[in-house]
């Protein structure tokens, strides 16, 4: 399955970005998605990435185990589940180009809306408003099911909700661990997992772990302002790539 001299470096780089994203800069996960999708068929890359993301999730929930806001997570559950179902249906019926560009448009629109809301002082509406929470939750479930790209959506939600760096990382770590576990039966039902993925995953999982260690080192050197700026830039870059 993987024999190209171009493919392996891309997969290793993507796995490293997954690890860093899980413990420092969530927006990097979408760049990892882009790397995998460049060298593998989209559905195959989705399945491999799901396993690698879960590997990073386990490290992240341990690293930020004291920071998670479980009350916020419970409120998101119904809409995220609805988004997962919609994403699975979307994945089953559309081609790769439509899937990629749809996610890109969603990310750009939400980035603009979130920045506007924060600057206008409307961030509290995202936290308490049923409509805002439903929109972010549904889109988060949808994008993570369709293309493993839910990270930016939910990070934008938590950022707009006024979470500090540590609380954001802890809450999103548990969020994506639970969501990715929930995605397993959907992905299996769509026939995305194949036996030939086992060897590449055994090679790439340690790379993810290395990335989580590097991410922790980076996180300790960031302040809130730079964290927010980097996350927003990475979200826009990811969206533009998906729109290509």
TrEMBL record:
Keywords: Cell membrane, Membrane, Transmembrane, Transmembrane helix, Transport. One of its GO terms (cellular component) is plasma membrane. InterPro entries: TM_pro_TauE-like (IPR002781), TSUP (IPR052017). It is found in: Cell membrane. The chain crosses the membrane at residues 6-39, 46-64, 76-94, 101-119, 139-161, 173-193, 199-219, 226-243. Pfam families: TauE. Belongs to the 4-toluene sulfonate uptake permease (TSUP) (TC 2.A.102) family. This is Probable membrane transporter protein. It comes from Arachnia propionica.
């Amino acid at each position: 399955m993987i024999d190209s001299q171009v493919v392996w470096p891309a997969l290793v780089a993507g796995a490293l970005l997954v690890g860093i994203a899980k413990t420092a800069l969530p927006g990097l996960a979408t760049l990892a998605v882009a790397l995998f999708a460049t060298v593998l068929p989209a559905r195959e890359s989705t399945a491999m990435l799901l396993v690698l993301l879960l590997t990073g999730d386990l490290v992240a929930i341990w690293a930020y185990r004291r920071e998670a806001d479980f009350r916020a997570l419970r409120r998101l559950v119904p809409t995220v589940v609805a988004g997962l179902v919609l994403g699975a249906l979307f994945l089953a019926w559309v081609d790769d180009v439509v899937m990629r560009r749809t996610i890109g448009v969603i990310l750009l629109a939400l980035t603009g809306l979130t920045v506007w809301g924060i600057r206008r002082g409307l961030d509290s509406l995202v936290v308490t408003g049923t409509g805002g929470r439903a929109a972010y939750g549904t889109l988060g479930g949808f994008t993570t099911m369709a293309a493993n790209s839910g990270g930016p959506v939910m990070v934008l939600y938590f950022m707009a909700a006024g979470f500090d760096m540590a609380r954001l990382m802890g809450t999103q770590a548990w969020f994506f661990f639970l969501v990715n576990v929930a995605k397993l039966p959907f992905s299996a039902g769509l026939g995305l997992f194949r036996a030939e993925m086992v060897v590449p995953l055994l090679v790439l999982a340690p790379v993810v772990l290395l990335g989580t260690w590097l991410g922790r080192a980076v996180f300790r050197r960031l302040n809130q302002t730079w964290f927010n700026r980097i996350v927003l830039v990475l979200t826009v870059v990811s969206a533009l790539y998906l729109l290509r």
